[in-house]
Structure formats: C-alpha cells, structure tokens
Amino acid sequence: LGDDTFLSDVPARLDRLRWGRFHWLVVVALGITWILDGLEVTLVGSLAGVLTQGATLALTSTQIGLTGSAYIIGAVLGALLFGDLTDRFGRKKLFTVTVGLYVVATVATGFAWDFWSFALFRVLTGAGIGGEYAAINSAIQEFVPARYRGRTDIIVNGSFWVGAAIGALASLIVLNPAVLPIAYGWRLAFIVGGVLGVFIVWLRHFVPESPRWLMTHGRIAEAERVIGEIEVREGIAPPRTACVPMSFAPYRGTRFGDVVRALLRHYPKRTILGLVLMATQAFCYNAIFFTYALVLTNFYGVPASDIGWFILPFALGNFLGPLTLGHLFDTLGRKIMITATYAVSGILMAITGVLFAAGTLSAAEQTALWTINFFFASCGASAAYLTVGEAFPLEVRARAISIFYAVGTGIGGIAGPALFGALIEAGSRREILWGYLAGGALMLAAAATEAVLGIKAERVALEDVASPLSRVR
Q: Quick check: 203 and 26 in contact, CB under 8 A?
C-alpha cells in the first residue's frame, strides 16, 4: 500500500449486522419523508376538484395538470442541486436541509393566492423532495446490510402510499363543508402537513453520518467510531478476523468528470437501464396520479369531497405490493422481479385504457383496476430507485440518483401530468385511451430492457456491485 492508502473493514462490519433497533431508527427517521410526501401529494390530487371552484383558486383542468408538472420541475432541480451537495458534504447535512425546505414550502402552499403563487410553492416543495430522494436513498442503502437492502429500499419508497392513505382520509375531513369552509379546508391541509415535518428534523438528529461516506473521504477514525457505536448499540462485539478489510485511498472530492466517466464509460449499460426504468415509471405514475381526481369527477361524476374514498384502495394496493413482494427482490433476484412487475403493470394499464374508452367501467371498477395495476407498478417504481442507487460507485451515488431522477422524471414526469390534464380537459375518452396505451407500451419496453440489461445485486455488498472510486485494486 502507498503512504496515503489505508485498510478498512467498515463495509463488511455494516453488512454483518443483524437487523436491529438502529436499522429501525434509520428507516423511520429517513423513510418517513416518503409518508409525508404521499400525504402532501395525495391531498393535491384530492383537492384538484375543489381547486377549480370559484371559492378557492378557480384553476382550470390544464392548470391543475401544470401544477403537477411544476412540482416535478422543482423536484428535478432540487435533485440535481442537492444530489451534488450530498456527495460533497455528506448524507447527514443534506437530509436535514432538504426536509427543512420541504416543510417551509409546504406550509407556504397553504397561503397561495392564485395559480402562479400555487405553482411557485409547488416548485419549491418539489425541490425539497427531489433532494430527499438523493440524500435518503444513498444513506439507507449505505446503512442497511446487503441481505436486507432490496426489500428495505423498496418498502421505504413504497411507504409513500401510507402517506397517500392518510392524505385520502384527511381530505374527507378538510373537504367536508360541514367541518370546514371550502375556502379554508384545503389551506389547512397543506399547513398541517408541513408542520408535521418538523418532527422529522428532530428525529434525524439521532442518525449518524454514513460510515461508508466517511471512509471514502479519508475520515476513517470517524467511520470507525460510528460503526463501533452501532455495534455497541446492537450488542455485537467488534470483529477480530471475521471481516476482510478493503484498501482505499482518500477521495479528494466528486468532480463532474468522475460522474460522466462512471455513467458513460464504466457503466454505459447500467446508465441506459436506469434512464429507461426511471422515465417509464415517472410517466405512468405522475400521469395517472396527478389527474386521478379529474378522471373521477369529470367522467364518473364523483363529488370532490368523496375523492378520498377512491384513493384509499389505490394507496393500499400501492403499499401492499412492496410490502408483500419486497423480499422477493432479495431472494428471487432483481432482474426477474423488476421485469415481471413492469410487464404486468404495462399490460394492465392497456387493458384499463380500453375498458375506460369503451365506457364499461363504473368508478369503483376503474379504481379496482388501478389498484391491481399499481400493486405491481409500485414495486417496479421503487426498484428503479434501488437500481440507480446501488449500480454506481459510492462516491457518486447521490449524484447518480439525482441525475437519473432528473432526466427520467423530466422526460416522463413532466410530460405525463400535462398530457393527461389536456386530454381530460378535451373531454374525450378515446383521446385519453391513447395516453393509457402509451403508458402501457413504455412499461413493457422497460420490462424488456431490464430482462436484457438487469444486474445481479441481490445480497451483494455495495462495494462489489460497483467498486468505489477510492478503492485500491
């Protein structure tokens, strides 16, 4: 070894841990953001019908779709900015900053006075969430032992729908004119959701910096201290000879060229795979979910105050998918499960579109088909984040997640809500059918891409899935 290189068994010590209280802390403190995100986004979906009324903001259907796109634009910009900062300054600093921005922007949304102010605050809220995706997914993957990494990341991302269910129930209260005036109920929904985020800031105080990030940045003493404290907390004696160390050289900082080389030169197939998975799931999810209430109100005559009852089963299916199938991503493997979930979702989306265009579905039947569809789609969407997180070197992990989120979501997430919003406003079921068919075709294309380019990452250490840039070979 050279003068500036060192040996470290930190990765092996993290992966040998049994699942314990520390991992529950990490999952709850970091993953709870997805619950709040689901709460906040669901409220927007449920409020779509109310926000078109004169007593509120009097938005058009197209403007509703545009505010969904505004949220995604903010998320894209936030992901790029905070993803870079997360790799430079560490996971802990940035997952505090991003949730802080989310809280402030969400509360501000409750005070919006017209379309432009509402759209601006949605951009800022999205920026906080976009940054969260990079910082949180990086930290969770780096803390969780390899044998649990797949199911944990998928369930955590899927917990968005726990928040969605809570948001659906909350909408039944805030949109009930017998409880709150329509002009104020929707504002209270945002304000309360933002205030709840303050609890997250406090909880994250107890989560340490990622030992893997510290190690690759030459702060080996801090990394050893953190992993030692975790072992003491979990009642595990420090290893003697059980863990095989790796050799590293201190990494001087993430440069843009490092990211480009990792994505385009070292892992071009993984780059294509990540872009396809992220873009297709973003198009389908955002297109359907951001216009969910509009379809129910415009085509099935469902009152805006009752939308929550229809979102509840949809949210339940989205969470039960990762909860019941998540472990298979660690046992059967990533490739077979991602291929299957994307393919099944694509087929079901096309079938739903045909039946919707034919006018043979009731509101309940339409919701049932969406629920079954996204039981599988939710697993695939969560697995997309898992894939882009673990497929690239640790030193550029957060930035890689942010780039894939930004590009994939920019392609699919921004276009989806705006397209479906315009199709719904046109009022033709047959025109909307083309949107469903496009979404189904994209999901099937993603399934085929995974079948060809998917990687074996189940139960494999992160350092072996993608060797760190600072590792001395």
A: no
Runs of H (alpha helix) within 301-362: 307-325, 328-331, 334-358
Which tokens sit at 235? 């009642």
User: Rounded distance, CA 439 to CA 279, Å?
Assistant: 11
Q: How far is CA 124 from the centre of its chain?
A: 17
For the ranges 58-72, 248-262, 410-424, 445-459, the one whose mean pLDDT is highest: 445-459
Cα–Cα distance for residue pair 165/160, rounded to 1 Å: 9
Nearest partner of 67 among 4, 136, 126, judged by Cα: 126
| pLDDT higher at 358 or 328 | 328
Q: Is 471 helix (H, G, I), strand (E, B) or coil?
A: strand
The answer for residues whose C-beta is within 8 angstroms of residue 355's C-beta and 6 or more apart is 361, 365, 369
Tell me: the pLDDT tens digits for 41-54?
777 767 777 787 77
44-100: pLDDT as tens digits: 767 777 787 777 888 887 788 788 778 878 988 998 898 888 888 888 888 888 888
**Three-state DSSP class for residue 247:** strand
Q: Are 33 and 246 in contact (CB under 8 A)?
A: no
Helices then strands (H, E): number in the chain?
21, 2
Contacts of residue 240, defined as CB under 8 A and 6 or more positions apart, other chains included, come to: none
CA distance 333 to 331: 5
Q: What is the pLDDT of residues 356-373, one digit of tens each?
A: 888 888 989 989 998 999
